[in-house]
Write the structure tokens for this entry.
Amino acid sequence: MNRPFGSWGRYPQNSHHTHKLLWSTDPLPPSNGQLMLAYGFGRSYGDSCQNNAGTLLLTQALNHFLAFDQEQGLLRCESGVSLDEVLKLIVPYGYFLPTTPGTKFITVGGALANDVHGKNHHRAGTFGCAVTQFELLRSNGERLLCSPELNPEWFRATVGGLGLTGLITWVEFKLRRIESAFIKVESLKFRNIQEFFEISAESDTHFEHTVSWLDCLSKGASLGRGILMRGNHAPASAGNLKAHRQPKLSVPCDLPGFALNQWSIKVFNAAYYSRLRAKATLATTHYDPFFYPLDVLNHWNRIYGRRGFFQYQFVVPFAGDQTVIREILGKIAASGQGSFLAVLKAFGNRKSPGLLSFPREGITLALDIPNRGRQTLDLLNALDLTVSAAGGRLYPAKDARMSAAMFQTSYPEWQEFANYVDPAFSSGFWRRVTGGSE
Amino acid sequence: MPNILLVGATSAIAQALAHEFAARGANLVLWGRSPERLQTLGADLRIRWGGKVETETVDVNACEFHNAKFDRAVRAVDGLDAAVFCHGSLSNQGECEKDFSQAEKQLRINCLSVISLLTVSANYFQMRRKGTIVAISSVAGDRGRQSNYVYGTAKAALNVFLQGMRNRLHSSGVKVITVKPGFVDTPMTGHLKKGVLFASPSRVSQDILRAIELGRPVVYTPWFWRYIMLIIRLIPETLFQRLKL
Ligand SMILES: Cc1cc2nc3c(=O)[nH]c(=O)nc-3n(C[C@H](O)[C@H](O)[C@H](O)COP(=O)(O)OP(=O)(O)OC[C@H]3O[C@@H](n4cnc5c(N)ncnc54)[C@H](O)[C@@H]3O)c2cc1C
Ligand SMILES: NC(=O)c1ccc[n+]([C@@H]2O[C@H](COP(=O)([O-])OP(=O)(O)OC[C@H]3O[C@@H](n4cnc5c(N)ncnc54)[C@H](OP(=O)(O)O)[C@@H]3O)[C@@H](O)[C@H]2O)c1
């Protein structure tokens, strides 16, 4: 049994048997009566990549590229290939990922299984929207080729299927053409949440990538102040097609629990907000700092210490009424349990292809909150009430604690999905939200 | 641009080597026993590095076909500059003790199959009066120990064979390199608990590459194994026989 294969939030902590997969053409190992789950880079925050007392199938060595059509911009690779590796390969050829989350240290299998989204959701939809086909290996040895046309029901179940339908062995997806590795970025300050909504919609029509950082400790008139960053891929004249380099900095060990307190978070947020002197700035930056600002620091999750932290990400439908977001920001500010990183974005109306895909049209907010035990859980439960009342839902990839009832109400497709779960596969998340014991 | 034959290409060490070679612009011929794995590895190398990669399914124990297969490899890339032998199997010592046929199998895969291939490639490179032959042996061949002396015997025989061949080919300008890794974290040692002595396949492949560039005849990888094995070889047999190693 091994401990190190945790999740990014380091909560809950589990023990697993592990089995390293080496070739996508090999059969699955015998289950020996234990439930299995694929594990990529463990960049999910909660227990969707955990399988306490069961077996984790480690996919990182399934890292072979299988086909690269440079004319069509179509890439096929094994599921353990990381976005980091994909970028290093494709950027010099003038291609970029169809969409990307806030870190490049995730596997393609993980991107598919969580149907991840990025700053261009309002244009490109989720990662699954760019997937043309993949292979699913079931515990009975069956290999299913899945695409929107072939085995479409398995396609729908596996995209965003949280690794529960079997092992994804390889994935083929469409790339986006770029002329340079650079992004033309504009950063705009907004003084409150009202201003955010004013500039957000306008930004989405003119910019491929938009995302906002929010100071969630500010109150009163400046409740919801922050910075909106919007960007477009820069033309060839703006720079070359060089991929990124490896990060050099790393947090060497766990920081003590008191390193992150209300005060240090407040200082950080205030400093971040005033870093931008002018109301708006223009810059051309490499894609790496634009998309992956946190990747410069390896193991940054260690700053939250041994007890770990939660990420709370929800989406709520939005039709111009700001009360939900205000209510949530109000609750957080009142609790004094701030967040270093609060990220706000408007999802577009492109339908996510998976039965359990998280993104849908509305406003999404993601908050990192240090685990302080009971008081933190109480705060998150209180936020759940607001989210549920607004018809919203939480992102399973980030969740370690939502109730079974909340999951089942907000993802009514879960019962249909359950028909596709491989009998030899399970996860901590799945047992928790379907009422099994954990 | 060198043309290199990699035998046992799907082994972890050979895969790491293949990337090092391909990154330097080499064309590769990959031999292995699993066509699916070869296809996967070949595609990956071509996509990442853009060089020529040919694959061939070969049963290395079928020595009668080695000549013909080697010819095909030579023709596939229009002449070879190096041949690297990486296949091997960490024998189950217990089974070999109970049953000679098991030991025989282990000697066949770890020693006889390599000797057959070395014979074919030595003649080829000798005729061309240039080239490099690399075989992966093991520190296990430096002294017989109760925990794995069948495997050790195969590697020891290989060492002597390589030594003799190096001597024979010296005047033709052909380099013969014996690689002696210590513990390497690969599927072969998947069942063993990993300690600080374990090296990564990529570390080992870099050492092999340096040995080829510098023309070193015998390379221990990582380097400290040279000294560990020196000490182990120096222990008098009367004492050694009592040790639990
Ligand atoms: C700094 C940071 C920023 C992030 N930003 C975003 C963001 O902007 N948008 C977003 O959507 N997400 C974001 N995430 C979350 C992250 O993108 C997802 O959790 C992603 O799925 C992690 O991939 P992974 O390879 O680490 O997979 P893991 O976390 O190891 O696994 C994730 C799930 O995928 C399954 N899985 C993995 N490989 C396979 C396979 N081969 N076959 C079947 N199932 C498989 C696992 O079983 C598990 O259910 C962020 C995470 C971090 C740490
Ligand atoms: N790992 C160590 O600690 C260590 C230490 C010293 C020396 N070595 C030597 O390093 C070399 C490479 O091994 P590795 O560590 O990279 O291990 P590995 O990944 O397990 O590779 C072993 C290779 O040998 C092939 N092979 C095994 N049995 C075979 C058979 N009966 N017929 C045909 N091919 C067979 C395998 O083919 P498949 O891919 O088809 O299975 C594979 O290519 C070997 O010569 C080994 O003796 C290893």
Notes: The mean pLDDT of chain A is 92. Residues A 8, 37-44, 48-49, 59, 79, 101-103, 106-107, 109-111, 113-114, 116-118, 162-163, 167-168, 294, 397, 427 surround flavin-adenine dinucleotide (ligand 1) (CB under 6 Å). The first helix of chain A runs from residue 83 to 90. Chain A touches chain B at residues 20, 22-25, 64-68, 78, 89 (CB under 8 Å).
